[in-house]
Amino acid sequence: MRQSQLLSPTLRQAPADAEAASHQLLMRAGYIRPLAAGVYSYLPMGWKVLRHIERIVREEMDRAGAQELHLPAMLPAELWKESGRYDVYGPELIRLHDRHGREFALGPTHEEAVTALIRDEVKSYKRVPLTVYQIQTKYRDERRPRFGLLRCREFVMKDAYSFDIDAAGLDASYRSMFEAYHRIMQRLGLCYRAVEADAGAMGGEGATHEFTALADVGEDTVVTCTECGYAANLERAEAGRGASTASDAVGNGVDGDAQAARVETDENLAEDQTSKLADAQAYKLASAIAQAERFLTPDMKTIKDLVAGLKLDETAFIKTLIYIADGETVAVLVRGDHEVNEIKVKNALGADVIELADEETVVQVTGAPTGFAGPIGLKQKVKLLVDYAVAALSEGIAGANEEDYHVKHVVPGRDFAIDAAGDYRNVMEGESCPYCGGGRLQFHRGIEVGHVFKLGTKYSAALGATVLDPNGREHPLLMGCYGIGVSRLMAAIVEQHHDERGLIWPQAIAPFQVHVIPVAVKDEKQMQAAEQLYAELQRAGVSVLLDDRDERVGVKLADADLFGIPLRIVCGKSVADGMVEWKERASSEVKLVAIGECLEKVRQWEQLSLCSPVW
Amino acid sequence: MRQSQLLSPTLRQAPADAEAASHQLLMRAGYIRPLAAGVYSYLPMGWKVLRHIERIVREEMDRAGAQELHLPAMLPAELWKESGRYDVYGPELIRLHDRHGREFALGPTHEEAVTALIRDEVKSYKRVPLTVYQIQTKYRDERRPRFGLLRCREFVMKDAYSFDIDAAGLDASYRSMFEAYHRIMQRLGLCYRAVEADAGAMGGEGATHEFTALADVGEDTVVTCTECGYAANLERAEAGRGASTASDAVGNGVDGDAQAARVETDENLAEDQTSKLADAQAYKLASAIAQAERFLTPDMKTIKDLVAGLKLDETAFIKTLIYIADGETVAVLVRGDHEVNEIKVKNALGADVIELADEETVVQVTGAPTGFAGPIGLKQKVKLLVDYAVAALSEGIAGANEEDYHVKHVVPGRDFAIDAAGDYRNVMEGESCPYCGGGRLQFHRGIEVGHVFKLGTKYSAALGATVLDPNGREHPLLMGCYGIGVSRLMAAIVEQHHDERGLIWPQAIAPFQVHVIPVAVKDEKQMQAAEQLYAELQRAGVSVLLDDRDERVGVKLADADLFGIPLRIVCGKSVADGMVEWKERASSEVKLVAIGECLEKVRQWEQLSLCSPVW
């Protein structure tokens, strides 16, 4: 392609609202343009890259035995009502009416549509295992679309769905997709981790993994261990019940032994013979602590206020948060330095929706404004979800359910009943690894680019998708779903492959492989060499962009850096000596290469990259 | 691919609502399934065919120098308000609101979006000519979706847009697309015609062509000449003013000379010296006709009623239809045997929207209920659009603008003023060709599968898309738009390529090239031969489907006929003699071929089809 004809409008400045590097550079290089918030046009080079990513995803899906199909984006609301998601999905689901007033949703995902299809078309165990996929434009009305292609309202996704008759089949289908995802990420040259993720109501070991590309701009937090291979996202990462809280407590100067003793009262040991002994010890310890006592804490509504006002560490406090889970009001207690993990709470309750209670509810339940809730003396009886770290406290300071008052010497189990002790908090960086125990947890920012998930019978049961086994017995299909954010991947790759001058495309997805640049198009020799190379490479099937524009060399080289085509061949003064300049975008080295050897060298270079270690 | 694993659910019966052969067969063969009216899922084989069509379209677009990009489907309403189409488009445009209440439309076409993009990104004559295209899912809320993929609400379209600085450039861009469309249709093996179509306000010779696939189920009427190459759609086909009306008149027993004389009063001759003479002659003739006279016609509201009641030919009557064009009421007069061509009326008035007046307006304008309108004695002064064939009548019978009354001896020009004589009617089969005069017009049913259109400055002017010429002067861009119904093409191809047993895919777009069928999978020799062929063909890069199902041979062959894979190789009893049966789907001939020669013969067969005369 000749650059003079290519629609590739560059910008000197990134738009003011572009925070992420990928957003800035894809805009500046003329790969994308916004049409509305979170709604983008792909210009020719952007679309080429996207199609290359699609191709790699498609190849690996096909290789894994998945069959490509294509479901509509206009989905009848009835389908979503059958699964129960129509009301639950909220404003992210784009809804519309047709001319007859019938309700539709624009597909944000296709579990319902694919389950209904398979329900109607697949009746026998002979037709499974079956995995189908599609690469399609999806719609989610994000509350805050941002970061360019990272969080869009209209975006390209690959979604796959597997159908099996039993758990072993689902395991195999899941593993096959899991491996295909690894191959895809590796072929795309991504630095990524497959991390354990929250499986919601499914639960179970290895029921879901996110594929997360490491990137500072990422909105996800990945937790890894410094010693073992443990990797989970923050929503999922398990808080170690013993070591970590104990060590935190030690760090905070509280009696370690007492702490350790209480820790043994946790669920896992409850049935154990030792638990009664532990309880007795704990009781003795608790009875040594002074009675709970109300005291004045004017204007101290937050942990920060209390820490400042009382000159105590955050760990001395018990935070009580009032939530509404599927309509039921509950209280969640975490230590002052911890954050509630709403996903964990939601899962523990088996709830669909959870949200912080509004002020009115807080006043109703506690009798006080927000900031003074506590487990003792609540006006309404609500379930208390007590985080392990709170259950492990010998004593703490909690809200008094009265404005400007807190209570000290609060002993969990003595002063309030622990309805459900559990892991309800986010882990903290530096904690002990819950798996190996020896390592410490590290946090990383990442972009979720893929997600594999065992759905089980959630949708097949709701929509009645069953098959008959060889004995004529009906079985609900076990499903898995597997998503890849194709357009998001494009941005994630840029986040990892760029410098201050522009994009640096991995060869596998570059819009062109070679950028041929004559320094001065009016110099006959240079232009002739460039045209010759251009023709030669094209004949050889190499995708090549020729910068035939009559522009200053500075402009041309700056645009080339911005575009990020992996190999640049500059035809400048050395053409007089039969040489051209060879520069790979990812390197700063410039070599002189004889014009006659260029094609052969390009072929070698292509081979080299095709055999890159990641693949 | 092994058929036992392929999601390809066949149906014995087509659904009751499937009228078109393509709809029936694509459903029966398991290529598509409906999710809602006019909203389809593509199953694996259907999607393969669609992607093959896409590939051919893409290759020819690229070859023509068009650049692929991708615009959003979610289009801000503001854009459509800028072009003025938001209000005009009507209920076919699917509208929605985002979570912030902002209005969007789901793109039925992308003139606005692409014009806005080019307006913002292309400023100089150096960047044109430029043609961009996309292959995308489009949305139109059809009043009556039907015929499966032929008229959908969600469908796949290729739309291209060209931008030029002058008319010569637009001509060249248009020609380039016109030729690419011919190549596409030929590669798809379609029987089609490029027909002149209505250019709306653009007008002009060759400003728009439709590519119409001949098919009985088609909703378009193509008019061709028995002698010359003239081809136009019915909306566009010009009514010959002289010969055809005259000959019709002769056929109806009216004085041919008188008729011919009046014909000469038409617009083209108005400035001519001869016209005064003709007028004088016409006057003389008219004055010989009796005075116009009201007479009772009880319950004769339609031409059919009048023909039956008065025992006269349809040609003896003048039909008067009341229309509302952009808010203005007009009357259109056509001969009793003719139909109003609303597109012609709309174009003549330069109107955006035209519709038949409601009963209330008819009563207001005529003083009578529908069925008795006429040009004499209207209650309101409205513009009279008089078709040439009416203007050419020596006399006729028209409505009296009074219930149950008509007027006879009505002489156009004598009894009512001809505000605008013109071509306002559909041509009729058998009329003389307006171009060569010698041939007769023939009607054919067809499916519009492509449309090329010179838009001129319609959108660039509305959205302010201009470029600077070398002298720094601003020019609005001249645009062309070029659409292909990709999913509709799939159905159109089936309409032309099927028999009573199933689909017959042209090789270029078949889901698989070869269908290998072992007659009895439990026969070791047959199965071994089939497996060997399957492996060998796959290694050679031939796409092949192996029917490894343990089914009766009758079921397998019936499914094979239904699927329509172009080449079938059956491994039956003759395998014992080292032979297999070779049968092309499009032929009834069965040959025996040595197993060892199969691969070579398949290669030859592939080459043969690649060099087919249509390409």
From TrEMBL, chains A, B:
The molecular function terms of the Gene Ontology recorded here are:
proline-tRNA ligase activity
What does the UniProt entry say about where the protein is found? Cytoplasm
**The UniProt record lists the keyword Ligase:** yes
The main enzyme category here is ligase
The record's domain comment reads: Consists of three domains: the N-terminal catalytic domain, the editing domain and the C-terminal anticodon-binding domain.
Main function: Catalyzes the attachment of proline to tRNA(Pro) in a two-step reaction: proline is first activated by ATP to form Pro-AMP and then transferred to the acceptor end of tRNA(Pro). As ProRS can inadvertently accommodate and process non-cognate amino acids such as alanine and cysteine, to avoid such errors it has two additional distinct editing activities against alanine. One activity is designated as 'pretransfer' editing and involves the tRNA(Pro)-independent hydrolysis of activated Ala-AMP.
Q: Could you identify this protein by its name? A: Proline--tRNA ligase
Instruction: Supply the source organism for this entry.
Output: Paenibacillus profundus
